[in-house]
Amino acid sequence: MKKPNQSTMRTMLKVGKYVRWVLGIALGVFLLWRVVRVVTVEAAYTPDTWLRFGLSGLILGGMYALIAIGYTLVYGIMFMINFAHGEVMMIGAFCCFFVFELFRFLPAPTMTNPDLVFLNAHPFLSVLIAFLVGMFVSGCSGYLLEKIAYRPLRNAPRIILLITAIGASTFLQNAAMLLFGPQRKNIVNPAVLDRGAGWTIQFFGKPVLISYTGAFSLALSTILMIALYILVQKTKLGRSMRAVAQDKDSAALMGVDVNRVISQTFIISGILAGASGVMWGIHMGLVNHITGSLPGIKAFTAAVLGGVGNIPGAMLGGMTLGVIESIGPALLGIDFQLKDVIAFLTLIVVLIIRPSGILGERLSEEKL
Question: What are the structural domain ranges in the chain?
Fold first, then answer.
């Protein structure tokens, strides 16, 4: 079969570009029409309900963004998608459950309240310990994944690494099921972080509850994302990570310990996943062996949406996906149980219209 020449290839690329533009404009017009119709004509939801949808989306988006950054860090260093990353997040959620359960039955009586337990006597310390334990165990899990599963196959074809990552994900899921059982575990928060409590604001004359757990998760997600960005851009470790991502051989010649940097990257990725797992447990309240599966896949979608290999893109993609998932069913007039369909449909649309993501995919020349 005769191969197409360069002129034909350029023509095909131009046609593909125009087709993507047409599809993007058509989709934008449809969404704009749908938004105007739902908000003004059908008026199915009041303004305070839209605000609740938006707040819920931002909270979810912050967690997705933290997990997506882990995908992006590993992809930038090793050019692979670590599909076991969601299970590392699940480990963090289980750590939150066990720490809270320990403190819930640890007596801390006072003269005024002889039945007081440590969880409510020292709520902030309990939450801090839960985060430290979750981030430590998840960071160690990320390190062991790289050391045992990925390092021996570093020079293997990419498809081998992909299959290994899927196998590691399945192994961690089944290990958690055998260790902790298949039943969902209910995470009991300290009283100050009760899921039904929060601040009530008035919006268009209607009360809107901003939950303590939601505000806490969103604020902490933002702080961790800013801290990670500063670490990558301003520190010696960050410079080493960027050098290894650009060219491993040149970085090694400049004195960078490539193996150490890759291990540290997996540790940082695991720490972020562990933090998001603890936040997920505090905000959602339930954890089992498949807790990290769906958030992990959605975070991968967020990473693609923002631009794989692009840390600001992962942040933006996570926030965007969270909002789309929250308000999408209302805008399209479909059942809210189909919100996962909207999330994955977003991935398909992005891959068709702008495969490089919102902020573009960052690759070195070697990876290209």
Answer: 46-353
**pTM of this structure:** 0.87
* Residue 323: alpha-carbon gap to chain centroid: 13
**DSSP H or E segment with residue 202:** strand 198-203
Name the percent of the chain lying above pLDDT 70: 94
Instruction: Produce one character per residue of 63-86: b if its CB has 16 or more CB atoms within 10 Å, e if not.
Output: bbbbbbbbbbbbbbbbbbbbbbbb
Residues 6+ apart with CB under 8 A from 92: 134, 135, 137, 138, 273, 274, 275, 276, 277, 278, 280, 281
Domain 46-353 -> CATH class: mainly alpha
Please give the Cα distance from 129 to 109 (Å, whole number): 20
- The rounded distance, in Å, linking the Cα atoms of 208 and 99 is 32
Residue 151: DSSP 8-state: G
CB 61 within 8 A of CB 322: yes
* Residue 247: C-alpha distances to residues 244, 264, 273, 363, 366 (Å): 5, 17, 26, 10, 7
Which amino acid is it at 53?
F
Please write the tens of the pLDDT for every residue from 308-366: 777 888 888 888 888 888 888 888 777 778 888 888 887 777 777 777 777 765 544 44
Q: What is the pLDDT of residues 7-54, one digit of tens each?
A: 776 777 677 677 777 777 777 777 777 777 776 766 677 888 888 888
**C-alpha dihedral, 46 to 49 to 50 to 51, nearest 10°:** 120
Distances (CA, A) of 71 to 2, 51, 122, 124: 39, 30, 34, 30
Rounded (5°) CA angle 97-123-130: 35
Instruction: Give the separation between CA 303 and CA 198, rounded to whole angstroms.
Output: 31
d(C-alpha 331, C-alpha 221), whole Å:
27
Q: Helix, strand, or coil here: 194?
A: coil
- Give dist(CA 256, CA 264) in Å, integer: 13
